[in-house]
Specification:
This protein is α+β, with helices and mostly antiparallel strands. It has one domain (4-136). The protein is 44% helix and 32% strand.
């Protein structure tokens, strides 16, 4: 899918939020408008992990997630007139930014998001291993 960068915003916490237009024509002069807001978070941006009394280290997280993790939010509007496409794209970006900017800019957002993503993937892998072990044991 073709992604066109619409806007990039530098947040107070040093991260960049980028908006991509992934819209496509669906019928005649009608469009499906899809905007993707993406923020790549380098794990090293969250070095507070090393400083906390925590059983998880930055290296543990890198072993599971790699060097970076992406936060993404997709927004879709359907059957938009071609004449309204550009304005709709702009309005969708501005609307999301006005509602989410403070949340995404919070100094702890990156650390919390990375930890949450790590926990989800770690738990999913544990569950998959238990299921595989049960199947391997004939259960």
């Amino acid at each position: 899918m073709k992604e066109i960068v619409v806007k990039t915003v530098l947040l107070k916490n040093g991260l960049e939020l980028t908006f991509f237009d992934r819209s496509r024509r669906i019928a005649g002069d009608r469009w499906q408008i899809e905007i993707l807001a993406r923020m790549d978070i380098p794990i090293d941006h969250c070095l507070q992990f090393e400083q906390t009394v925590n059983i998880i280290t930055a290296q543990d997280i890198k072993n599971i997630l790699g060097e970076r993790v992406s936060f993404e939010k997709a927004m879709v509007r359907n059957f938009i007139d071609e004449k309204e496409k550009d304005l709709t794209v702009k309005n969708m970006c501005e609307s999301y930014l006005s509602s989410a900017k403070e949340y995404l800019s919070h100094k702890d957002f990156a650390e919390r998001f990375v930890k949450k993503t790590y926990r989800e993937i770690f738990q999913k892998r544990q569950l998959e291993n238990l299921i595989k072990k049960g199947v391997d044991d004939g259960g």
